[in-house]
Amino acid sequence: MISKDQISIRSKSEISIDYKKAFDSSDHYIKTGVKEYVKFLICKEIREKGYYKDFQEYFQKFTQQVNDTSLINYFKKVFFDINSPSIKNGSMLDHNMQIITWTDLVENNGDSLIYIDFWASWCFPCREAMPDLEKLSNKFKNKPIKILRKKYTY
């Protein structure tokens, strides 16, 4: 099902699969009725491994190549519906480099309003806004408002 050119062995305990190549070549290797489900599983792995940009591209390919609407609707519900558990319970790293979910974030901050600033060092408007955000943070430091800064890296 997965060819040798789609697998790389980095060490004795770590094997890496190129899911994009696997998806693109699945028509060549799989000729039976399970092809749509295999594409579904590969596309799901692309998303769950954190390849978000690739997932958008491969979800488009998936919707063009697959006729099973239940598989397509699964992706729409789980990965694109703002009320889905996978989005509600998404996670990020906190300032101590520990994984924290959105639910944890809300529960840990009680009734406080939470303002999250996503920024990147390469983003000029982000850097330009930092002094104002610092003033805002100081202004509300004794109020039930939490201002969190999350640096975007790629």
Kindly describe this structure.
The chain is of the alpha+beta class. The protein folds into two domains: 4-83, no CATH class; 89-151, Glutaredoxin (3-Layer(aba) Sandwich). The chain is built from seven helices and six strands. The protein has helices at residues 19-29, 35-48, 52-65, 69-80, 85-88, 102-108, 124-139, and strands at residues 7-11, 14-17, 91-93, 99-101, 113-119, 145-151. The strands form three sheets. A two-stranded antiparallel ribbon has the order 1-2. Helix 1 (19-29) packs antiparallel against helix 2 and helix 2 (35-48) runs antiparallel to helix 3. The longest helix is centred in the last third of the chain and has 16 residues, at 124-139. The model has no long low-confidence stretch (mean pLDDT 78).
